[in-house]
Amino acid sequence: MSGEILISSEKSYSDCFTCGSCISRCFLAESYPEMNPRKLVHRLLTGRERELADSEFIWACTLCGRCTTGCPKGLEMDAIVRHLRGIAWQMGKAPERIVEGVKKALEFGNNTGLESAAFVDMAEWLAEELADEMEDLPEEGLSVPIDKEGADVLYIPNPREYTSNPNMFQTYMKFFTYTNTDWTISSRVFDITNWAYYLGDNQDALVLVRNLVEEARRLKVRTLLSTECGHGFKILRKEAEQWLGEPLGVEVLSVVELAHRYLEEGKLPVKPGSIEGTVTYHDPCNVGRKLGVFEQPRELIKAIADDFVELWPNREYSICCGGGGSVGQNTRMGQKKLEHALAKHDQIIRSGATVIATSCQNCLSQLGDLQSRYDMPLEVKSVIELLVESIET
Amino acid sequence: MDKPIVVVGGGIAGLSVAGMLAGNGMRCIIVEREASLGGHVRDWACMATDKCLRCFCCSAEDLVGYARSSDKIDVRTGWELSSVSLSSGGPKQAVLKRIGSAEEKTEEAAALVIATGFEPYNPGEKILLGHGRLDGVFTLAEMDSLLRRDMLSVFTRGRRGLRAAFFQCVGSRDANSGANYCSQYCCKAALRMALKLMHESPDISVTLFYIDIQLAGKYAGALLKAAEDKGVRLQQGVPGEITNSEDLLEVIVESQGLNRKEPFDRVILSIGERPSPKQSVLDQLGLPANEFGFVSSRDPLDNSRTAIPGVYVAGTCSGPKDIETTLEHAGQTAEVIMADLRKGALR
């Protein structure tokens, strides 16, 4: 678990022939005029790893990978920056809050340090509250199946859903209820995030992934279902098998993909045209650029909203929200995540959208902060939130 | 020898092979799908400023004129090669087919020359460069075509003091877009075009973004020096994205150690050469493509013959070339064919 997983030999950064196309594609180019992806590679190659590991740039980078999308030599900047972060972490220079989060995730099964019993209480209380407020509850009612063996899906939330944004958790509960999904949550592992990945701490990243996979195996579920999360979903889909060195034995799906499957099967009780306003979609870097999940969220939105517009650029060249890759959780970065996101702000405003949907908790949080900081005239919603709204209209 | 040599492709490579063979008394048939001869070069412009810059575009006119007037060359425009039958000594019969009809004609052939040229890279694939979306973004080939038709005003739109930028290696040296090779013509062609534009409109300022300038040939160094003397700004690093605000094309580049946003009015993309779309007759012949998708020659030191006796290649169908090297290769192929004829290898 050292360098070889981070930077595979085929895509070695020593292949860089300084074409420079990455420079203009980095959303930090103007905020950090003295640094850019190409310089970073150059400094790596000239033995200045430690200097880089000491820089703010590697923590301002969101690992979004846009700079090296289409790289003529196939370099992957997110892997390179994670490699540098790993060095910083070993030097004791990683952001305290992220280091702390990893410790908690290893001990408690989530990065907030919430204990299992408290999590279960919280989930049950949220379900009760929801049952009181929902009028059109299906006959079988609403409950939170905890540690249910043999359920179809094991749903893994993002801690945001049971801390700052409990109504998001309720949104997913509603979604499962309306779609008659046979789901469960685990009382042991209830955090899709993997902050060790952010730190370039591969050992712990592997432990956290293994915890998720083993819990899915223990509960004998068919599908390990990720909430609308970027990096957590991406690691499970793209890295987990290689890291574990064996087949997962369980299907990895995001809740958006599940919704899309229902849509195709005609099992999604949404109402066409029920979402008003002009809706656009922000491609999260992990879900879109790195996993190629581009069309499913768009098809879902178009199924419920008549007026859909694209941001430009989009899909593999989507501009990063500016808050991913630990930047949003890194207290050292302060409000810089918003200052760095002006290109995102501008492209959203240019689109004329009144609703922006996305499918990653990190992007949702950042876009929400961006909206309130710059008083942008639009609402920020998750794709599943919009679907649930459509079902309820 | 009475059987003709069938040349597939009426661009400068095919015309040049046929011209040399005809000049030595041999009968040729040029089969060309398009309605006119000359290929891409027919659409390109002379780059002469106050002196010749050795682009060799003028060769096309001479070659076409010769092919049309020679009684040894039978020109079949609007025709394609449909199939070939082979014997042990080489091709025996070539079946030609008129495009868009069922009309076919069978010709006894002494030899077959593949001179099917290249396909220009479609820069629309690089969506962040905006070709086809942003009005001010052109390709080198489009610039040639405008100059050829005396339509430079489409580029300038009457504006004075234009800031133009060339982007080198668009779709070349780019494994990601399927072309991990240098297209070999664009550095020189872009420098000539820069000089030509500054000659035609002296108020244009030119920046040329490059990865590294790959120039070969004895006049190439002089070309670079002329560009520098005329004030062409050579800037290492090619922007990967053009954003537009109002009428400006903006790029972020690293210049003197700092990332800077620079505005331009026009961008010219130096697009690479790609292999022609695979032709069924090549499949039928079983001619392999090399690792870059171009037609393989027999071996690297025998790059006019193919693995099949009596079947030859000429020009860019066998790899990217500029006009000058295309003509050289065609000349070499014609000589190889004559040598094979002399020693009786072809019957």
UniProtKB/TrEMBL annotation, chain A:
Fetch the SUPFAM superfamilies from UniProt: alpha-helical ferredoxin
Enumerate the Pfam families for this protein. Answer: CCG, Fer4_8
Q: GO molecular function terms here?
A: 4 iron, 4 sulfur cluster binding; metal ion binding; oxidoreductase activity
Instruction: Supply the InterPro entries for this chain.
Output: 4Fe4S_Fe-S-bd (IPR017896), 4Fe4S_Fe_S_CS (IPR017900), Cys_rich_dom (IPR004017), Helical_ferredxn (IPR009051)
> Which residue ranges does the record assign to the 4Fe-4S ferredoxin-type domain?
49-80
Q: Does the keyword Plastid apply?
A: no
What UniProt keywords apply to this chain's record, in alphabetical order?
Answer: 4Fe-4S, Electron transport, Iron, Iron-sulfur, Metal-binding, Transport
Its domain of life reads Bacteria
Tell me the protein's name.
Answer: (Fe-S)-binding protein
UniProt source species: Desulfomonile tiedjei
TrEMBL record, chain B:
Q: Which SUPFAM superfamilies match?
A: FAD/NAD(P)-binding domain
Q: Name one GO molecular function term.
A: oxidoreductase activity
Domain FAD/NAD(P)-binding per the UniProt entry, residue ranges: 4-321
Keyword tags: Oxidoreductase
The residue stretches assigned to a coiled coil in this entry are none
* InterPro entries xref list: FAD/NAD-bd_sf (IPR036188), FAD/NAD-binding_dom (IPR023753), Metab_Enz_Cyan_OpOx_G3PDH (IPR051691)
Name of this protein: CoB--CoM heterodisulfide reductase iron-sulfur subunit A family protein
Q: Which organism is it from?
A: Desulfomonile tiedjei
